[in-house]
């Protein structure tokens, strides 16, 4: 059972599990109540982990596709070794964290006061050049 494909499948499962445990439940509560009760630190962690796990899932699927492509197109060529697969997985997580780095820098909570004196907090990315809907850096 310790094949290169299974290493990638375990990595994909781990990324999806981290997404569901560290992000989905909290964002469901946030969307349900329109309030972020988990604090500013977990806002940063949640946004960061969401981006890391999604990128890791996508990169892992790409690695599986690449491995399958090589196996089909060049059947006589040596396939990826287990140690190469482990190194590739480390590279996947490192590059995913690098791509999610702006979430660590720009995630914040903002309190909004409504007409009935109710205060709700929001968790989102606040870019240096403006809010998400008008930020140029969000698209770069």
From TrEMBL:
It comes from the Eukaryota. Keywords: Cell membrane, G-protein coupled receptor, Membrane, Receptor, Transducer, Transmembrane, Transmembrane helix. InterPro entries: GPCR_Rhodpsn, GPCR_Rhodpsn_7TM, Neurokn_rcpt. One of its GO terms (cellular component) is plasma membrane. It holds the Pfam family 7tm_1. Residues 1-140 form the G-protein coupled receptors family 1 profile domain. It is a multi-pass membrane protein. The chain crosses the membrane at residues 7-33, 45-66, 87-107. One of its GO terms (molecular function) is tachykinin receptor activity. It is found in: Cell membrane. Belongs to the G-protein coupled receptor 1 family. This is Tachykinin-like peptides receptor 86C. It comes from Halocaridina rubra (Hawaiian red shrimp). The gene is TKR86C.
């Amino acid at each position: 059972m310790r094949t290169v494909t299974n290493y990638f499948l375990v990595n994909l499962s781990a990324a999806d599990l981290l997404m569901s445990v560290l992000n989905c439940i909290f964002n469901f509560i946030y969307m349900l109540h329109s309030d972020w009760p988990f604090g500013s630190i977990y806002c940063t962690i949640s946004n960061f982990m969401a981006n890391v796990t999604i990128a890791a899932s996508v990169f892992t699927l790409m690695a599986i596709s690449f491995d399958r492509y090589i196996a089909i197109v060049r059947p006589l060529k040596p396939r990826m070794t287990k140690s190469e697969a482990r190194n590739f997985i480390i590279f996947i997580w490192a590059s995913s964290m690098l791509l999610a780095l702006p979430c660590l820098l720009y995630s914040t909570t903002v309190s909004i006061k409504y007409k009935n004196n109710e205060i709700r907090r929001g968790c989102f990315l606040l870019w240096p050049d403006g809010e998400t809907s008008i930020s140029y850096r969000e698209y770069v």
